[in-house]
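ENCODED BACKBONE
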Amino acid sequence: MPEMEEAPLLQAVSAFKSENPLFGKYEIGRLLGCGAFAKVYHARDLKNGQSVAIKVINKKRLSSASLMSNIKREISVMRKLRHPNIVRLHEVLATKAKIHFVMEFVKGGELFGKISKGRFSENLSRKYFQQLISAVDYCHLHGVYHRDLKPENLLLDENGDLKISDFGLSAVTEQAKEDGFLHTLCGTPAYVAPEILSKKGYDGAKVDIWSCGVILYVLNAGYLPFNDPNLMNMYKKIYKGEYRCPKWMSSELRRFLSRLLDINPITRITIEEIKQDPWFKKGFKDKKFYDEDFVEFNDDKMGVKDDGCEDSFSFNAFDLISFSSGLDLSGLFDESCSSSTEGSVRLAVEESPEKILERVSEVTKEVENTRLKKKKDWGVELQGHRDTGIFVMGLDVFRLTDNLVVVNVKKRAGDAGFFHELWEKKIRPAILGQQLQDSSSSSC
């Protein structure tokens, strides 16, 4: 057997670059993935030959103090979490130009990739869910709330055990406001809890439990409980808790899911209640371990100081937290995050559709060579002529909840620069009214 394993091992070692090891400690191998802010490489620790994943962040791409602050907070969160079902951060090395996250290498890939090949049996779904809850419980006991749990952020190691990754959207207890709730609105649409859509503040633990419920459904069903080609329709289903269980789900699992996907966060099941549930308890062996069982993180190697900023920023995962951009909610709800650079923008507002269209009608009267055309339902289209040619912009208002609507604006033809200026200087301020002045200063 040793002779059979030797060749693959030599091939793996030869895949690394031997010249100029990083900090004299790590040989960099193949590129695993890249995104807007970082690249992630497979690497080898020269001291012990261990495989690691190194996320390399170019400081020049962190254009604001808040982005750097979010990197520091992610480091702060990951360095305190030592659990067998959480991707481990070994150390952080920094130069003047780059930051290097040296992390545990999880070579099994995303759980999402496994699900895409077919749904899991109830027993296998239970195994992964038990490991997920064990890790989430640990996070909550340490005052950390993930806020973006989904199969894409769950990895599998060589033994088929689950590990949570990507804490870029996480929050800590200290970020709660005076009312005891978190208020930064973020997450991934299909997994977001209904109370986040209400904009009234939320309990980070209850939000994570909801996401765990969606994950459990996906594991056994093979598809999402709340899904619709129209994003607004999907939000409505989430807010009302409208989903159906497939016929192969056991009655015990259906009952358990109904408690996880309870739209009322007050009556939603807690972690302690989950652990006592008959469906969950089957074959469950709660691992006993202590933080000191793991190697302590070296603060001296971090090379980054904390400036105390508490804003959140969306970093979605590839296999190992690659910062690839995904569909998060920050740009939908945070006025400071909305952007029209791509010719499309969404904005959530606590206002009636009638009032919004009235304000848009008034402000667009001031725009030369344009006319506003009403559409069916709550929608209008602004048509006109510019020096650069025809300009067309559509605006639709969707009622999400009883007191919350989403405004969707899209450039359909014409100059992008004019669209951006029109949105930022006239239409968005008109839609928000006094909200623009009264809104919190948090940024995505």
About this structure: Residues 334-438 form a domain with the TATA-Binding Protein fold (CATH 3.30.310.80). DSSP finds 14 helices and 14 strands in the chain. The chain has three domains: 2-104, 111-329, 334-438.
